[in-house]
Amino acid sequence: MSMLAGIAEDKVLENILKSADELGLGDALFNALEGRASARDIVELYKAPTPLLGAVARRVTDLLTGRRVGYIVNMIMNYTNICVVGCTFCSFYRKSGHPEAYKLEAREAASQVIDAWRRYKIRQVLFQGGVDPAIPLEYYEEAFKTIKTATRGEVAIHGLSVVEIEWLSRISRMSVGEVVERLKNAGMDSVPGAGAEILSDRVRRVISPLKSSADTWISTMETIMEKGLPISATMVYGHVETLEERAEHLLKLLELQRRRGRIMAFIAWNFEPENNVLGKKIPHPAGGTELLKTVAIARIVFRGEIKWIQAGWLTAGVKLGQATLEYGANDWGGTLYGEKVLPEAGVPLPKLVRRSIERLIAEAGYEPVERDNWYKPVPKNV
């Protein structure tokens, strides 16, 4: 059975659809499973019983990847916390001149990545920071080339957000395509989905008014994919967005994938209110049920078109991360050595080394599989 056509013909899903019909949700669920979901259908799914969504999402994932759950040994290089964008939901950024502001030199940032490769055998670095207009394009070229040379190309660079790339384009007086080409030539392998938040201009005006529009975010990602780089896609939910705006966000990502086909994975993060401006207005974060529903609905809507969905433990905690595996997630994410952003938002991070990740996945009833930056399994003993 093809995952992209006729998925609702699966016998297990057929029985679940009968239960959904009794609840008046059959049409919305069937449309999603057939790849024809509308925003109204997705809103209806958000109102569905959580266990029903979990049963459907888990079955779809079983058909896709079985009981295997991927993870990667990686680190985060937050090379600076200086940022001029000032998103209201961010607890990490500092203005230039602030006593807590910092900026690593390119060689120092690369040195820390190389050290992590030697100590932990990381396979990926997530290279992200604030938007500091004083950092030129050459900074990243130096850092990326140094990393690639010293690690013999063994460390993939999953680097820079759309907003960082857009600012580099502005200060370098180059097109986005020219900037991406230079970053790619320097060693950047893929681009994370940060900066999407919710792809609604109304929401963006409230939570990140200095960021580009939703259409510009999509356009920049299209350019990145046109240059041959894969991306991940994200959603930050649980603040000022409506269910309709969440639905539109998912559909925009699906449409982007259908046009370009280079979205590797989707990650949903709940908004964390600690130590930021937006948190004073929305002091209570979305609960675990919202994460489980969001993961499940993403799986149902994306089906196999976006194959990998991460567990979302980073903001929700490892226990809830384990629960998302029953709701359609099939990737744990990474070890995240060096993470600095979430502790600023009051989120304590456990030390997740390879063995503890494998234990957490196995405890939840799944088979842990180490992967690389491109979501391909790593041969054992490599």
From TrEMBL:
(3R)-3-methyl-D-ornithine binds at residues 161, 262. Binds 1 [4Fe-4S] cluster. The cluster is coordinated with 3 cysteines and an exchangeable S-adenosyl-L-methionine. Pfam families: CofH_C, Radical_SAM. Keywords: 4Fe-4S, Iron, Iron-sulfur, Metal-binding, S-adenosyl-L-methionine. One of its GO terms (molecular function) is transferase activity, transferring alkyl or aryl (other than methyl) groups. Its cofactor is [4Fe-4S] cluster. S-adenosyl-L-methionine binds at residues 89, 197. [4Fe-4S] cluster binds at residues 83, 87, 90. Residues 69-305 form the Radical SAM core domain. The keyword Iron applies. This is Thiamine biosynthesis enzyme ThiH. It comes from Aeropyrum camini SY1 = JCM 12091.
